[in-house]
Design a protein that fits this description.
The protein is about 80% helix and about 0% strand. The protein is built from 8 helices and no strands. The chain has helices spanning about 1-20, 25-45, 45-60, 60-75, 80-105, 125-145, 155-175, 180-230.
Amino acid sequence: MRSSAVISGALALPLLVLVAVGWAPLLSFDLSVAESLHREAVARPWLTRLHRILSDWVWDPWTMRALAAATAVLLWWRRERRTALWLAGTMLFAAALQQGVKALLDRERPRWPDPVDSAQYAAFPSGHAMTAMVACGLLLWVLALRWRPGWRGWGALAGVALVSVLGAGWTRLYLGVHWPTDVLGGWLLGWCCVAVAVLTYRWSERRGARTAGLRDGGLGGLGGSRMERT
């Protein structure tokens, strides 16, 4: 997981810089892909309507946040409070990071004479792509912590998560409200958040186990010395 955090961060940072400086080859690639998809969206209104439903309801960032919040509440109710706070805290951090980068770059979204959808705020990174990556990645990790060998359906759940992450980014591209690099940046930053969150969670567990071991060892030693003195 450490390598995942390093690689995703190492890819996200230069992409952010290239977007910020407006590197011509990157902008040319973005425009070429966006124009091609926009022509497709205009030519097929029924498919565009389907993409809008998926983007605005199924894979909307608020849907993903609501799913993560419900999971955090369930964990809290089951007295797994450290995991619940970790999940909620990571979602909040990711949202703050996303808005901070958007404000920093203030990248304009694609503009079309015949738009099929609209969106506000800056373009980079895609909020849909980043939120889907963070929410799905965290929920899969929480499930993995508790998954039993006899349970079935892990592959199906992982497949749903993968389709959701990819679908969230694809619909934003198809609807012409994001550039390809916005979506790629959202995925990279989102996965970096997940990887760092998992690493910090594991670190806190190891630290807690060491502290508990030292405490138990100290109490054991104290008890033994008292018995020897008696």
